[in-house]
Every structure is written in C-alpha cells, then in structure tokens.
Amino acid sequence: MVKDSNETPIVQETEVMDTEAPAAVGEEESALAAEESTTEELDGRSELEKAKAQAAEYLDGWQRARAEFANFRRRQEQQKKQLDASAKTRVLTHLMPVVDDLERAFESVPKEIADHAWVSGLSMVGQKWMAAMEKVGVRALTVEPGDAFDPTVHEALTHEPNDEFEEGTVIQAIQRGYMLDDIVIRPALVRVSSGKPAE
C-alpha cells in the first residue's frame, strides 16, 4: 500500500494471471487432436475396407477368367479330338473294303500257288497294313461262333434257326468289324441263331 500526499491509501492493482485459461485451451487442443486422429483412423479404416473389397473383386474376376480359360482349353481339346477321330474314321471306312478284299483273296488262293513268293509278299503287305491301322488306334473286333450277339459291336445279317447254337448267339462272322480307340467305326457282320428249328 502506498500513501500519497493526502494520506489516502492507494491500492495497486496487480494483474491476476488466469491460470485456468491455458489449461482449458490445452484440453480443447488435445480433444481436437484426438478427434482428428479418430477421424483419420476412421478414414484409414474405410480406405482399407474399400481396398480389401476391391482386391476381393479383382481376385474373383481373375479366378472366373482363369476358370473360363480352362474350360475354353478343355473344349478346344475335345473338339480337336473329335475332329481327329472323325477324319480318321472317314479315311478308314474307305480303306476297310480294300482290307476285306485282300483277306478274301488270301482265303481263296489255290493250294498249288499258296507257297509262291508273291503270295507271301502280298501277305506281308496285308500284315503291314493292319500294323499301320493299329498304330492309329484301330483294332479288329474278334468274333467267335457261340459269342452272345451284342448290337453295339455286331450287325445281324441273318437271324436263322440252328441246331448247334442257342438263340441270340453268333453262328458265323461274315465281315470283320473295327474299333477306333473306344468307338465302333464298323460293326462286325454276323449270322445270328434264332434257336433250334421248329419240328
């Protein structure tokens, strides 16, 4: 307290520092910073979710494209096999009558000339022909008398009564049949028994 000349006390005003104000400002700033970091975290999470969704979408599209390509390749391979088998079948069906004629010619060779060199030479040509057909997947159907008639590999030329063979069995093979891999390209022509003749 200071006295002036009039002896009246003068109270000096001192600045009172507001100590609470800076603390409040600091709290507000930290709250704002916390909000901003939370917002940034939320933005980061939503971006991450979007990126994950997009990655899943790309993965799904890639897997579908891969499956479609695999299916396309499989279809192409099947078509190629079918075309190959079809071309072979067309060629072989035109050549089979030649083999049939050759076999019939050998069956009717007279005994006097059966030992001639040219007959054995032709026989070797026939064997080579059959070996070449086997190389491309052709095999002859073996049909024996007494075999059960199978419409998938046999074609009945006659259906006749027979004392020796039961009904539905092969009496005799007239013409050889052929298969290409697992496909019958020509069924064997056979005579089929209809059972014992009626008395």
Main features:
disordered N terminus, 199 residues, three-stranded antiparallel sheet, elongated, alpha+beta
Q: How large a portion of the residues is in β-strands, by DSSP E?
A: 15-25%
Tell me, what is the CATH class of the domain at 138-199? Answer: Mainly Beta
Rg calc: 50 Å
How far apart, in Å, are the first and last alpha carbons? 160 Å
What is the fourth-level CATH superfamily of the domain at 138-199? Head domain of nucleotide exchange factor GrpE
Oligomer status: single chain
- Counting H and I runs of at least 4 residues, what is the number of helices? 2
- Enumerate the strands of the largest sheet in spatial order, edge to edge or round the barrel: 3-6-7
Short description:
The protein is of the alpha+beta class and 199 residues long. Helices cover 54% and strands 17% of the residues. The chain has a domain at 138-199: Head domain of nucleotide exchange factor GrpE (Nucleotide Exchange Factor Grpe, Chain A, domain 2).
